[in-house]
Amino acid sequence: MTFLSNLRRWPQASLQRRLLLFVVLPMLLLVGLAIRFGLALTSELVSNSMRTDLELIGRAIRVPISDALLQQDLVAINAHLESVFTIGRVYGASVYNTDGRLVAATGVTERDLSDSELASEVVRTGLQQDGYHSVSGQSLFSHFLPVIDRSGQIHGLLQISRKGSDFEQSLDRMSTLAWMSWVALALLSLLIMWRGHQRAIGQPVHQLVDSMRKVAAGNSKHRASLEGPAELAEVAAGLNQMLDDMAVAQSQLQSQQAEQQRMQQQLKKQETMAAIGQVVSGVAHELGAPLSVIDGRAQRLLRLQQDEDSQRQLEAIRGQVQRLSRMVKQLQAFAHTPVASWQTISLPELLQQALTSISFELQPGDAEPRLLTPCPALVLTLDPARLELALVNGLRNAVQAARSEVLIQVISDPHSLTILIEDDGPGLPTGQAAADVMQPFVSTKPQGQGTGLGLAIVQQILQEHQGSVQLSNKTQPNQEVTGCRLSLTLPFATMKEPQP
């Protein structure tokens, strides 16, 4: 089936067609011409051989026949003529006088050679002659020799004949064998060409084309096999290199598109945050002055009022005003411009300032933050006020979520500094991602108890210092949540030098 299918597809197989037209057919044509010239040469050689055989037979009996002819001994002549049949395949032998009249004969022969040009030529010149002629409807090849006496005079003519068909049949058999061999050689050459093409060229070409079709169908990860001739292997290697380059270019393009989308999203987010910051800044500014007036009036009334109920009500008013003031400060911190004041400060001093600031907000029963390990004596270059604000907001969230403790741990390596703030509260709400919790105005506290800006401010300040923030749950080996962990990481390598 494979051979038949390939044969049906043969007209489209241009490479096979070219091999046949420009290699196999010229080779077969040369072989055919060689056979043709070989047969012609063989025919000439066979004719010469036959002529030589007859000449040798004639020379062997010419002398005794000449003596017998001079003595008119017909018995001896016939005996010598019959002896030629034991030497070779002779079909006739005869002796004629110089006039062409038959003297003695055996086998197939002619009775009269008076009209034969060959006989006349032999008698006239004394040279032997030969040629084809027909006797009784049968083609004969005859060799004529002059019968010469001892004095050198021609006194007779000797004719020895063989069938012409003997040579024709031999040549026909030889020609048939030669052309049959040529046909067998042609078929064998075609088979060798087809099989050799399939093994050496056809199969690798089909594999290469199949690889191209797979790539064209969308399988960009497919690679062509490097088997086969060196030229096809080089083409396959070039195809694979092109596919690799395309894959790299496509990967780079996808990376560029992803980076462009990320930058567009970041730009959009920055534009949104800038707009929010403008609104928040305006609102905080407008709320700040009235809250200061309300707090001042409440303090004055508190000094004037002596009854406990009035003082309690005024203290409640002041408490709400302070709560609103903290919210205004958070709004102002969120809308604050990026870091502009870089200073050198020791890490223990920075942590102590943050702990002191948060201590003023602690209520009875709140967990007091404490260092789990001694703080390393590191000197940092940063904006102390902004980073203290980040630490205070992180500690405030931990205190509000903690049940009994808030732990601080400092971890440093040659590349970065990490401050861990851990609490033993309920952890992040189920199904809520840490990235969502750190978005502005997203709060896990009950409504009215938080602005949702604490972690957003922490993230904003750390980004201004080329740092990062991570929020995650603390879990036990049994996956039980035991609290929340806030990780603040500052890179040493990206810290700016103090500005004059």
TrEMBL record:
Its main location: membrane. Keywords: Coiled coil, Kinase, Membrane, Phosphoprotein, Transferase, Transmembrane, Transmembrane helix, Two-component regulatory system. Residues 282-494 form the Histidine kinase domain. Pfam families: HAMP, HATPase_c, HisKA. It catalyses: ATP + protein L-histidine = ADP + protein N-phospho-L-histidine. Its EC number is 2.7.13.3. It is an enzyme of class 2 (transferase). Residues 239-273 form a coiled coil. CDD domains: HAMP, HisKA. Residues 199-251 form the HAMP domain. This is histidine kinase. The lineage of its organism: Bacteria, Pseudomonadati, Pseudomonadota, Gammaproteobacteria, Alkalimonas.
